[in-house]
Amino acid sequence: MSQADPVGGLAPQSTRVANLAHLLTRNARRLPDQPGIIWGANRWSWAEFDARVSAFAAALRTRFGVTKGTRVLVQAQNSNQIFESMLACFRLGAVWVPTNFRHSPDEVAFLAQSSGAQVMICDAEFPDHVAACTGIARHITIGGTGADSFDALVAAHLGETVANVEVDRDDPCWFFFTSGTTGRPKAAVLTHGQMAFVLVNHLNDLMPGTGPGDASLVVAPLSHGAGIHQLVQLAAGAATVLMPKGKFEVDTAWSLVAKHKITNMFTVPTIVKMLVEDPAVDRYDRSTLKYVIYAGAPMYRADQKVALDKLGPVLVQYFGLGEVTGNITVLPPSEHSYDDSVMRLGSCGFERTGMEISIQAQDGRSLAPYETGEICVCGPAVFAGYYDNPEANAKSFRNGWFCTGDLGHLDEAGYLYITGRSSDMYISGGSNVYPREIEEKMLSHPALNEVAVLGIPDPKWGEIGVAVCVTAPGQQITEAEIIAYLKGKMSSYKLPRQIFFFEDMPKSSYGKITKKLIRETLIERGLVRITEPA
To answer: How many angstroms separate the CA atoms of 480 and 482, rounded?
Structure first.
């Protein structure tokens, strides 16, 4: 075959794909009167939701000049409007650029500048964030008043029909900002074609059988993983139920599960822990729950057992980064067990459909089962790269593999075990120390509720481990008692040299325990001094 005839007589195939907003178009045609979004007393059918998205898309196009490729920054808490803004951007072929709504004005200004955003959608309670984004001249307010408020724009254009713009597989639809555990956040470019694969994969691997009779409760920010999860519900025709704004309340969550017959939810291990340890878990009917999907970090075994005891066989774990859009491994309900002899303890599951994992040494060499190295992945869920960041792209891709920065190993059956972030590992006296192993051992003590271990510089050993602990309600324990408990369970060089007790563990806005926040808290409280090398 010649270059001009690459497929044996057939013309080269176009890379055009369905615009992701077509999923909403399909629901509005097929399920017009069924609920799409539920928030408090408000309920929008798929037809109503589609009409609002078209109205907002019309306003973006005619009043704000948004066209294919325009980046639209969104600084907002969960609401029907944030979901509508996502789909309106997709419909126009624009790029949705959501922030973490808890970011400071300066942090959001950096995201605005680095993404090249031209329009900003912002909750009314964030005027300082708007003021900080000096490079953006056009603003739309959610919850505000005036002609440029979100709902006023929708009302002004309601009834206008906007067709889904033609898109190719690699056209960007979403800049998914990394959490910035090391350095500043980077914009991972998600595309229409990649995301179509992700949605099908989530439905197949995480929540098979999900359809129009289902309902999903949103307990995490739509700007990140929960937004992906709710797009999956859109693809399935399942209703999305939003929590009230403000602090997460366990009682409210369980009451909504009972009221709306919730069948699935996506969250992180620390929120699952809150849900199952609160007395509210026993006050409401939760029999409709089929899938409680957790990601962001492996769940400690003690917490898994409590959740399995309370909820039954509904836990689904997955491992995946924003750059791979949650698509690396899955551990389905059938492989979660209360019985330690049956459960693959510490595993986050096997490769997702269509994805492949390679455990690699620093030189790119593939490692054998049980050898620890960097977790690398390839497949259609891998993002297109970081926006305008060639240096980060060069560091993150090697021989076609995306290098996650996480450490782990595979067993002989292909199940993945995460040791931790490569940035979490520390070297004490020349030996590699993986904090997760120590944390698991410490959490087996009934007096400890949450634990985080991290390395800090030490003039003698290079680095030493320190532990931050939160005790279980009504429990007390001393540093000496913890060390005595750990002796004999691990090598002496792994024992924490200092143990601190906090009332509450520092967590990210997504409920994740992050070593960066813990390190910053230790420094702020004057508990440790960390001098960076010159």
So the answer is: 5
